[in-house]
Amino acid sequence: MAQRIFNVPIAVVSLVDENRQWFKSCVGLTSKETPRDISFCGHAILDDEIFIIPDTAKDERFADNPLVINEPHIRFYAGCPLRFTNGSRLGTLCIIDIKPRNLSNEEIEILKDLASTAERELAAIKMATIDELTKIHNRRGFMMLSQHSLNLCVRQKMPATLVFMDLNKFKQINDKLGHAEGDKVLKTFANLMSIECRESDLFARLGGDEFVFLFINTTTSAAKDTIIRLQQSLHKHKQNANNQYDISFSFGMVSFEPDKHKTIDALLEDGDSQMYQHKNINK
Question: Domain 139-281, what fold?
Fold first, then answer.
């Protein structure tokens, strides 16, 4: 839409991290990413307003930029920051031309409107993939991300371990103390999960009182260490909160085997089976 409205050869939705920018939706560029230190979008996300360079050849910050001197020969740039639901800036919606130009006030407002549309799309994805109660991934979010992670493990020949967890005696807490207390238990468990895991690990509430970890580039032994820490954290929480009940869980731990687990569903099924065996043993 931006490419057609502004009649530019290049329009991009970029995401920017500490070192790189990715072109996640793009018209007119063949490259998928560039280093942040030469990116225009890395400048654009530093402010809330649209970042405009009418003529890069006359701007001392960009005149010798490789993206100006070489392909795609950027002469005009306008980028509107994209904000996530928490207010953080993720990247930009930007338009690029190979000749100098300016934007009218009306065109600036149009670019802002298009950026707002992109932000709403990002927010909609979050709402569809995040559990409303615990604020961690729900089943849909986990299924979307975990298959990509397993594919990466196969390509890089990395180990992965899945841990399927089910809270013990959760129904009794709901029945005796009410659903508000049950919700408190779920939020506490999810929060402690997030504390114990690494940024590269995936964790989610699958539904009800079922949760899951997917540890990337991790052996079962290392995953077990995390589970032990989670159990210790739950014990410490009980002491501090002075609750009438324990928060504990049964779990099934499965090492990812590419030949056996063709999909994340197959890995979850094995984890679920192992969890029920563990729960029956500890009744």
Answer: Alpha-Beta Plaits (3.30.70)
- Give the pLDDT confidence of 28-69 residue by residue, as tens digits: 988 889 999 999 999 999 988 999 999 999 999 999 999 999
d(CA 39, CA 142): 32
Nearest to 248 by CA among 270, 233, 266: 233
Check residue 190 and report its DSSP letter. H
CB 61 within 8 Å of CB 46: no
DSSP conformational letter for 136: S
Amino acid, single-letter form, for residue 46: L
- Annotated active-site residue 270? The verdict is no
Average pLDDT of 115-136? Answer: 90
Residue 167 tokens, joined: 């809270």
**Inter-residue long-range contacts of 130-135, CB under 8 Å, 24+ positions, other chains counted:** 131/190, 131/204, 131/205, 133/183, 133/186, 133/187, 133/205, 134/186, 134/187, 134/189, 134/190, 134/191, 134/205, 135/190
- Region 2-127: CATH code: 3.30.450.40
Q: Which residue ranges make up each domain of the chain?
A: 2-127, 139-281
List strand residue ranges (DSSP E) for the chain, in order: 10-16, 20-27, 33-35, 51-53, 76-83, 89-97, 160-167, 202-207, 210-216, 249-255
State pTM to two decimals: 0.69
| Residues 167/209, Cβ–Cβ less than 8 Å | yes
- pLDDT over 90, % of the chain: 71
d(CA 84, CA 103): 25
Set 97, 131, 201, 209: catalytic member:
209
